[in-house]
């Protein structure tokens, strides 16, 4: 059973310990007390301010695992603090395999400061955990998928629409890199893991994947320049820098362009545009 009073106290303490600068928010002149406001935590967690307020009072409903995961993300909790939050909410501690969907607080602090740059936090299965707004404009909302489709690797080999954003001349090399990344995850996680389930599904559904998988490609150390096809901005030639967490279960990918180029100019326009992937899917009847 949930300990509502302890849960409320823990949420309040963590909210008051966070400063606006910790989550990429301006402090403002009218802020009289330290810590975040309730509505700010609610927004960071993609929850309503009323719902979050009732949890802190405490008089709210029993929070679901999804709600607790969202709160852990919004409050920038460590994995140990996230586990404690789940216990207070009356739920079992999430599995530590690949560390699940919980984004490392250090990764979140960096992402918070990249609001004008396309940047994505992904786990080792190619599942997007967080995106900046320009990344959504470039890639679409990659957090909206469920099941196996959460993995960009799975979508690349099973959904033709996933390939619309990359030039056809680069498809073969991108396929090889994706398989190499999954092979690395499978080697570390082993049989019975989520990586193994993803491999089994792709071998069954994609002859292309199966053929590359049999060659057991190895992932190289570099993130090569990438070319994206945007329906409004045209071709963008981007470089990617990758920050990998110590246990290699998550990585932060940041996309940049060479200063002074047309791609650099267009990159600055991304946050002003609607989701291009959704437009592509509508155009092709997906």
The count of domains is 2
The CATH architecture name of the largest domain reads 2-Layer Sandwich
Instruction: Give the strand tally.
Output: 5
Poorly predicted ranges: 276-286
Quickly name the level 1 CATH class of the largest domain.
Answer: Alpha Beta
SSE topology string = HHHHHHEEHHHHHEEEHH
Shape: globular
Radius of gyration: 20 Å
The portion of residues forming beta strands comes to: 5-15%
Separation of termini? 43 Å
Structural class: alpha+beta
Q: Helicity range of the residues? A: 40-55%
Give, in spatial order, the strands making up the sheet with the most strands: 2-1-5-4-3
- What do we call the CATH topology of the largest domain? Beta-Lactamase
Q: What is the overall number of helices?
A: 13
Chain-averaged pLDDT:
86
For the biggest sheet, the summary is: 5 strands, antiparallel
